[in-house]
Design goal:
Pfam families: MFS_1 (PF07690). About 75% of the residues lie in helices and about 0% in strands. It is mostly helical. The radius of gyration is 22 Å and the shape is globular.
Amino acid sequence: MIDSVTSTDWHGSLSCAISHPEQAEIERLGRQRPVVFKTLWAEVGFCFSLLASMFMAEYFISGFNIILPTLSTALGIPLESRTWPASVFSLVTGALVLPFGRLADIYGGYITFIGGIIWFFIWSLIGGFSQNYLMLIFCRALQGLGPAAFLPSGIMLLGSIYRPGPRKNLVFSLYGACSPIGFFTGILFGGVSGQYLPWGWYFWLGAILLSLVCFVALLTVPSGRVDHKVEMDWWGTFLIVPGLLLVVYSITDSSHAPNGWATPYIYITFLLGVIVLGGAFYVEGWVADTPLLPFDMFRVKCMKPLVVSLFFTYGVFGVYLFYASFFVETVLHVNALQTATWFAPMAAGGLILAMAGGFTLHLLPGKVLLVLSGIGFIVSVLLFAIIPENPNYWAYIFPAMIGATLGVDVTYSVSNVFITTNLPKHRQGLAGALINSVLFLGISFFLGFADLAVTSTAHLGLRGSYKVAFWFGVGCAAVSLILITLFVDVGRAKSDLTIEEKAELEADLTGR
């Protein structure tokens, strides 16, 4: 079988080899319900479980930022430690999605998905009983293990069950829409919990929702079987995970260290992390038989510039989520509940874009959509960077919310479809791990630099230093847009053969 990484080299010749009746059959298969689902309700339940898992991951990212001021007072969180409860969740998730993605490839998506949801439920429940900020950080870190398991396995399940075509596009678009919808719901519940209920209810309401997701998932997620023998890369795991944790920790904590980057434990931690990641790079490229992150997957056309641009894009999204909510509450002096209503366009816009994307991804070039999403991200952070002292909501904040929704929803949908479609079934766990690793590490990495920028410009006042963070976001968004415009060429997500079917057809054509 020809590996997926070479598929784009002979895609044109394969298209010529497919007759019109065969193409019509491929189009039909791309639109029909997968055979693994015996009824429509089984498919609906499955999709609900997968979409709700993304929803809950975003719920515990966004809403936590809203309730963090309340938690800071209730648990006595020092000013220099307030970014940690918010960022440690994304940091742990981003560092561990690659090992969990490999476990999904080894044992199947069902076990890792269900296990991740259950784990997430347990530590969300316990988090509501936190007695001090150290316990809160501990619970948030352990919470991060849940999404690290169920997010890559969820994308693995979606990518392996749905073949290329409009049905897959619609499901992935709805999956991406759950990011802003979950984000808004987290803010809403965070606002209600911070203003009208004990703060613990933010965690307990999330745990109640997770119990429902778990119940439906147990009934509807196909267990399936693993057709390919895949082994765990333990050396890669033991090097990549601590390396990422050390580097991102040093960046995140440098702004609050006594002497910044001159503080010994900061630069020692950073250098140690870089050395460990350098060792991981060597092991993955030249030592490991089954590397955790195979280099050959980056031979897929446009994969390298796409991943780099996504890293910047999701970093901008993380900066926007954190500082927009804090700017609205602490600078504009808007209460938590009203802040939630101000973010409502993200939820509505996400749902509209998901429905529109599901019906247009196979009609419009992915490059055009990615450029539009890049412009949306620039607009979102730029409007907050230039916002006046008494802003008009409809002139500044509303279009910023629409821009952020356009950016994250379209980017996530297009990139997910592209990556999962260009990798074979036995690498769908890897695809999910790569997607979510870039997402969460991008958020943690750039949020750390934004926090450093804010701390370094504290003399400008809260408004001025927050605007520095937004200008930093503008720069990162511009870099991402340039990369997409010049180096990323993603076509239409139309009905097509799977990687395995293309390999079989190529073998027939070449007589092998």
